[in-house]
Design a protein that fits this description.
By secondary structure, the protein is mostly beta strands. The chain contains no helices and 43 strands. It has a six-stranded mixed beta sheet with strand order 7-6-34-10-11-12, with no helix packed on it. The N and C termini lie far apart (about 65 Å).
């Protein structure tokens, strides 16, 4: 996992989609993927989440549920208002996604499914709403004839890249291509000018770190050993070594050090399980895949699917689904790029004059300059108001 460390005189910054500023007094917090993050001086260390076993009584009908915007499952009592959907049973006030673009809710024993909520979008008069293949929400596209390129059909307004440094668009049956116009960049002494794989324009990247013969990029976190976590900060490896406290185990438990863990902990002396080559102790719970949670109960592994609590995001937030995670989260919608002192959302496209179109992607602005066809011999190139390319007319 990659984590970004940013130094400041008064705050430590947490990376990822749930980016937030934390006072030095708030030394621990939940990361964007439910990882447990802690500030040690001026570096941030994040570790994978470990959920306690809520010990549900399944014989009495209790179910596992991850609360809205939560990380670990809890026990909820089974009510009479269960829902049946596509051969599965869901508890009251739970939600799930049977397909990538659909969301269902169980309420009072009834299932209601609807498309995933999309942000409001108002198109100009010459454009219409259209949902592209593989996307859930519609975008504004211009109405017009489609284009055919090497047997592939593109609708009016579709954009594609023939090379990393060019982009083409279908405009009412005509294909208009543009070349990337890279912005001038000046790197700091601890940075290198690189062109990312598959990219076009150069950007400044902080120097990597070398540790144990391996290279780590700026912001990357790795384990030097089971007790030492390091972060690459502009070419410098910054490490924190955890100190283990003394522990005394109650009757029926003994000290054990799990594989890959730094400190000993108290575990049950009997009823352990061997699961996928890993030793689990009685009472342990772990996340298998997606929504599946398994527990070791007196030498037996029991796995059950957790359901998601109903999620309602506040105004100014949007729903995100992190890969490998069971339930969605609410995150604040923030601007990703600033171009000529104007903010733009990630994925936004806009025009700069008649011949240049820019886009914001992953915090980087790339502008494309329209390439115009050369008029044939014996014709005149006449400028057109409001158009980038001249009109070719017979001399």
């Amino acid at each position: 996992m990659n984590y970004l460390v940013v130094e400041s005189n008064s705050a430590v910054f947490s990376p990822g989609p749930l980016f937030r500023v934390l006072d030095h007094t708030a030394t621990s917090w939940r990361g964007p993927a439910c990882e447990s993050c802690t500030c040690y001086g001026d570096i941030t260390v994040c570790l994978p989440p470990r959920c306690p076993n809520p010990r549900c009584d399944y014989h009495k009908g209790e179910r596992l549920r991850i609360p809205a915007d939560g990380c670990c499952p809890e026990c909820v009592s089974t009510s009479q208002d269960l829902c049946q959907h596509q051969g599965l049973t869901y508890g009251d006030n739970s939600q799930w996604s049977p397909s990538p673009c659909e969301e269902c809710v169980c309420s009072g024993g009834s299932v209601s499914c609807s498309p995933l909520p999309c942000p409001p979008l108002l198109c100009p008069p010459n454009q219409t709403l259209r949902t592209l293949a593989g996307q859930c929400c519609p975008i504004c596209v211009r109405t017009g004839a489609s284009c055919s390129v090497q047997g592939e059909l593109f609708s009016h307004g579709d954009v594609w890249s023939s090379t990393p440094c060019s982009r083409c668009v279908c405009q009412d049956g005509d294909i208009a291509c543009s070349a990337a116009e890279c912005q001038p960049v000046t790197c700091q002494p601890e940075q290198n000018l690189v062109i990312p794989a598959g990219g076009c324009c150069p950007r400044c990247v902080s120097n990597p770190c070398l540790s144990g013969g391996e290279q780590h990029q700026h912001g990357e976190q790795w384990q030097k050993d089971s007790c030492t976590t390091c972060v690459c900060d502009r070419g410098q490896s910054r490490c924190h070594t955890h100190t283990c406290p003394d522990i005394t185990c109650p009757k029926g438990e003994s000290k054990a050090q799990r594989a890959g863990q730094c400190c000993e902990e108290c575990v049950a002396t009997r009823g352990s399980c061997l699961y996928d080559g890993t030793l689990r102790y009685h009472g342990d719970m772990w996340n298998g895949t997606g929504c599946e949670y398994c527990s070791c109960e007196r030498g037996q592994v029991v796995c059950r699917n957790a359901e998601c609590g109903r999620l309602t995001c506040q105004q100014g937030q949007e729903v995100v689904r992190l890969q490998g995670k069971c339930c969605p989260h609410c995150v604040s919608m923030t601007t990703s790029c600033v171009f000529q002192n104007r903010p733009h959302q990630n994925g936004a496209r806009w025009t700069e004059g008649a011949c240049r179109e820019c886009e914001c992607e992953d915090g980087q602005v790339t502008c494309y300059l329209r390439t115009c066809p050369i008029c044939p011999s014996g014709s005149l190139a006449l400028p057109q108001d409001g158009h980038c390319c001249p009109q070719c007319t017979n001399a």
